[in-house]
UniProtKB/TrEMBL annotation:
Keywords: Methyltransferase, Transferase
UniProt domain Histidine-specific methyltransferase SAM-dependent: residue ranges: 18-317
Pfam family, one: Methyltransf_33
InterPro entries, sorted: EgtD, EgtD_Methyltrsf_superfamily, MeTrfase_dom, MeTrfase_EgtD-like, SAM-dependent_MTases_sf
Organism: Sphingomonas aracearum
Record-linked Gene3D superfamilies: Vaccinia Virus protein VP39
Protein name as catalogued: L-histidine N(Alpha)-methyltransferase
PANTHER family: ERGOTHIONEINE BIOSYNTHESIS PROTEIN 1 (PTHR43397)
NCBIfam families given in the database record: egtD_ergothio (TIGR03438)
EC number: 2.1.1.44
GO biological process: methylation
One GO MF term attached to the UniProt entry: L-histidine N(alpha)-methyltransferase activity
Amino acid sequence: MLKPEIEDGEASLADPQFRADVLDGLSRRPRAIPARWFYDRRGSELFEAITDLPEYYPTRTETALLREICPALGDMIGRGRAVVEFGSGSSTKTPVLLGCIEPAAYVPIDISGDFLRQSSAALAARFPGLPVHPVEADFLKPVALPAEVRTLPKLGFFPGSTIGNMAPEGAVDLLRAMKRWLGDGATLLIGMDCIKDPSVLVPAYDDAAGVTAAFNLNLLERINRELDGTIPPAAFRHKALWNDERARIEMHLEAVEDVSFTVDGRRFTMAAGETLHTENSHKYGDRDARLLLAAGGWTPRRRWTDAEGRFALFLAEA
Ligand code: AVI
């Protein structure tokens, strides 16, 4: 995921950026904290559990779609590329892709070193003879690819609709940066979740078993643990809503009563009904997605969706 896992009891080692984002996010109106901070160890486990939920269609839909389009992908991409995966470690999707394109090398990029080493070792065992060059880095900052793949043509792989967690401006900046890092002749395979009826979208982010609620509320536990907070999680409830104007699911933590707490020695007060905005998950129609890719410097060549049109994979050229 986007952020490293943090062990329990590491309050003194809190990431300064986490502290700044939380204090700033609690002070601003409307209150908002970037979604990247969901992913401590517990948050990463809860996200894995989300991907198996009956209501959360994106992961299984994208994986099935990838399997289905494999032969076409093999034909279009050709062999001999270095596959560069952004936010690597999706244990099921990566082997599907690597199995159908005969890559020359695999470069997983992830901020979590432990996770990266584990998934790289598993991949190397599964594809003997494939050079694997893990890069421990935050791909929201400039990334240097390993010297071994510098002269190879690249295929960027950015599955999961992770691009949807960024505001469109940030998404465009990232696509442009990817184009610079991957170089001339690069190709990009990117997953984007499609706009659909809120009766499907909202339950995907507010499941009956309450796993997404636990994922959202875990942010408060993380703040308490790492930033010496006194937030009572029971004073908040998970809220997921579809913002039609911005074509995104929003997740919030809503105060169910007037609540006062401290974080890092600073006091904050929230009135009942006030929310802390914790995530956006943008959904893209066909044209929106093409415009986004074009603004990011990529020319869309092919779009595939599942039979129900829930999730799309785009192949684009630099
Ligand atoms: C990681 N990301 C693409 C997920 C999404 O669907 O936006 C994160 C998530 N949040 C709640 N459920 C899943």
